[in-house]
Amino acid sequence: MMIKRVPVIRRWFATSAADVAKQQQFNVFDRSAKLKQRSKSPKLDLEKSRKVEYLRDEVAIRTIERLAFITRDFNKVLDFGAHLGNLLKNLCEDSPVPPGGDEADVKITEQLNKDKKTIRSKIKEYIMVDSSKEMLERDSNETFNEVFEGKIIRNVADEETFDHECLKESDQFDAVISNLSMHWINDLPNALANINRVLKPDGLFMGTLFGGDTLYELRTSLQLAELERKGGMSPRVSPLVHLNDVGSLLNRAGFSMLTIDAEDIVVGGFPDVVSVCEDLQMMGEQNAVLSRSNFLPRDVLLAANEIYKTLHGETDENGVISLPATFNVIFMIGWKKSDTQPQPLERGSAQVNLKDIL
What we know:
- This protein is α/β, with parallel strands linked by helices.
- It has a domain at 28-212 and 240-265 and 329-338: Rossmann fold.
- The chain is built from 15 helices and eight strands.
- It has helices at residues 2-14, 17-24, 31-44, 46-51, 54-67, 86-92, 103-122, 133-136, 144-147, 188-198, 216-230, 243-253, 273-283, 298-312, 354-357; strands spanning 74-80, 123-130, 151-156, 173-179, 199-210, 255-270, 314-315, 321-336.
- Strands 1, 2, 3, 4, 5, 6, 7 and 8 form an eight-stranded mixed sheet that branches.
- Strand 4, helix 10 and strand 5 (199-210) form a beta-alpha-beta unit.
- GO terms for molecular function: methyltransferase activity.
- This is S-adenosyl-L-methionine-dependent methyltransferase.
- One of its GO terms (biological process) is mitochondrial respiratory chain complex I assembly.
- Keywords: Methyltransferase, Transferase.
């Protein structure tokens, strides 16, 4: 019996570390279902798919505002989880002055458009990576692609496995930017480590993802409605990363000089909970948890709608109640470690006594 078991033992030890890590990985999201959800939206209704890009466009603008403070050139940039190219589109299109904007709004908009032009001029090669071919190529013929003077490359690749040829070479990108795509990755620490690997030394990573308080109105309404009608709860909204965890994730991946903050973006004016769910569906952001229930009973949905209005509804001057949806967006910046980066002085090397100052 012992002799027969030897080949099995040897084969187990011959298994690669990557295979062992994959076997041990705890998956939360159904990646195949998420790919189908995201790919379905552009084919289902192209115009409506474009109308629900307001959130990604807004986050792209706020990412551009942060990029404007970085003065270095980025010859080769990776847009990781690019969707249709919201970041590139907003870099190439001038932002209008908000309706009813005052003189300050005019100046802010003018500065933003100048920053867009400056950032565009720094990028020579723009590589877009996304798992959904339909999403990635949806706007490939739009005019904003012609405004960009550099080279645009679109590659269909899984953001989790990093198995595409363009992602295998290390130390190749000056910057990696990710706009609201990493919250569907099961092995986020490994994805961040791979992003660090493909960056050049002292390269920039700037990413955004939805934080833990996103859609708390919808979450609480569905939970209370299901408790009331069914006596239990199903995972209707995906689990998300919390702000306090992002720093340790970036440090673990090898990034330094971290900058992390969060902003709440509130989208209002939804007439009912069905409208909220429809927008999420057209965005490709509906639930993809492995343990999800694929059926939402009508009575639960009706109860959730009333609870949503009661707890979170906003009433205008005409007495009409509309529903808000809050998206907690985490912004993170990290730099790949390099010997050229500023280093802390050795302990005890100070030449001024703190007592003398105080």
